[in-house]
Each structure stands twice: as C-alpha cells, then as structure tokens.
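User: Okay, second chain of the day. Same drill as before: sequence in, structure tokens out.
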Amino acid sequence: MKNPNGYGGVSKLPGNRRRPYRVRLTTGWQQEGGKRWQKYHTLGYYASRRAALIALADYNKRPYDLNLHHITCAELYKKWYAKHTARLSQSSCYSFAAAWKKCAALWQQPITSVKKTHMQAILDDNQHLSASVQTRLKTIFSGIFRLALENDLISVDYSHYLEKSSTATQMARSIFSRSEISCLWQNLTLALPLPNGSRHHYIDVRLVDTILIMLYSGIRIGELLQIKTAQIDLKKQIIDLHGTKTKAAKRILPLHKEILPLIEARMHGTYLIEAPTGQNLNYDAYKKCFFDPLMAQLKMQHKPHDCRHTFISGMDSCGVAAGSVILKRIVGHANADVTESYTHKNIRQLVSAVNKLKY
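Assistant: Same drill. Structure tokens below.
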C-alpha cells in the first residue's frame, strides 16, 4: 500500500539515544466502538531530526509500496539466485547456495534495515575461508542490493563499501608427476567402495579414466561432468564444449590421441560421465565418493584442479607456451581471442597442438 494521505511526521522518542527520531506516515483511519483514530506506518528511525526529515521528503518525492518496504533479504536472494545462476554450472550454483547459508543472520531482516556493518560482520566472521568464498558473499550482497535499488526499496547501496577480509592462505597447486600419471594408467579398472563401506549407486563406478581425460585436455571438472555424448565428434577429435565459467569457456576442445579410446568407451549414455542411474555426477559426489578416496588409495595428494595445472605445465614444456593464444583457447581462459570462428583449419591446429603433449 502507498500512503493515501501523502503526509507524515517526525517525532522524538524519549530514551532512544542512538536513533531518537521516528518518521511516521498516515495510512488511513480506523473506527471501533464509536471511536475513530488515525493509522500510522513507521517509515524508520534516525539519529538526527535532519536525517528523519530528509527520509520523509524522499518518500513524499517518490512514494513506494509500503508493503514492499518489509521485503526480506531471503526473498530478494531467491529472486536474484534464480536469475543469476540460470546459466551457471551446477557446481557454481552449489557454491552460491553454500555461501548464502553463511548469511543466516540476514535471512529474515528487511532489506531496508541492512547496513554495511551487518554484511561486513558476515565477511569478517568467514575470513578464515578462501578468498573465493568472500567473493561469492560480496556477489550475493551486491546482487540483492541492486535488485532492491531497481525496485525503489532502498536509496543507498551499502554493498559498494564492503571489504574482503580473507586470512586464508592460497591453496598450493600440486602438479601430477610422470610416475603418478603412469600409476593412473595402470589402475584404469580400479573401483573403490565408499569410505564408510555403505552401498550406493556410485560404488562400482570406475572413474580413473576421468582423471586422465582431465590431465590430457585441461578441462575443468565442472565442465567434464556436464558433457553430453552428443557434443563429441570422435572423427574430428573434438568436443563442442558449452562452458559456463567465462565466455571463453564456450569453445572447441581438442582430444589428445591418448584419451580417444577412453572417450569412445564412454559413448553409450546421455552423459559422458554418468552413474548407473543414467544421471550425470555432481561435483560433490565425484570428489567425496571417488576422487578423494582414490587419491588416498594411490597415496597421492591432489585436488581435481591440479589436473588442469598439470596439463598447462605439460603443454608449456612441450613447446605450447602457457601464454599463447592457442593454449588459452584450448583451456578456455577469458583473455583468449575467441572471436574467430572455428574453421576446419582451426580445429586441425588445436588437435595438432594438444597432441604435442607427452608425459
């Protein structure tokens, strides 16, 4: 509802030292038992009379629906999340949902009552986590405040003034050694039970080849788990990769001759990597139920992203420089030149470049 009478007042509240001035808007009349009195809506509380009068003047200049004034952060997040994650990978969606769980203190707060201090406190409370978590938190705050601005719920975007406060050390990337890669080839048929020994539909899935595919292509694990077999052309030795991390991530991925048989062996389902149920694996299931147990079994200490670093390092050692346009196009780095269409010549160049890799 909007203020039908178009006026309100500022009053001083006794005993309130921090915000002693209240702005009230007249919203109508109520009658009961022969008595009639005005109904009010409190617009807000302010530290000075001047600030209160400015808030009242701003409202009268551009009235808004007072019911919307009480929209919570959780309601705005839900709208923002649906739009923001529409084209993101499944793992990226999970990461934003996980970050939002750390904002529970704000869920039921009206967006109009949220200030910089509230959001900064959440960033500070999570400073022990990685810088990427801080970035996602800032992205969420920026997104919901922008949505609030667009709908005239607020007049100041406090998210602009937030500061990251991560104290976490940068995760060291470890490159797979030649002996470790050789060990993976020797254990292609290895199948591991879940760490707790329970039954699960992932229990007999053999996924050692997925690590080798990443090592010989530089593909991100999130991208690999979303590939459909319809995107693969074995004759041309390419995957039409619909990446979602950056614009450059949407690219043609050349397939190294060593992993062609591994790819071909998986061309029987909808997804290249899928569980016996026919569904593709998500990142958490892949890492917790397979990758981490396998690393422990083979006495290796790696993260899935180490495969990508190993590939880039290996290509550089084989004469395809890490800063070259062709390698950036293969791995999908954002500053690669992706404006040129992929002609038959381009594809041959990509395949030729990736086949130079030797571990």
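The CA atoms of residues 89 and 244 lie 6 Å apart.

User: Thanks, on to the next one.
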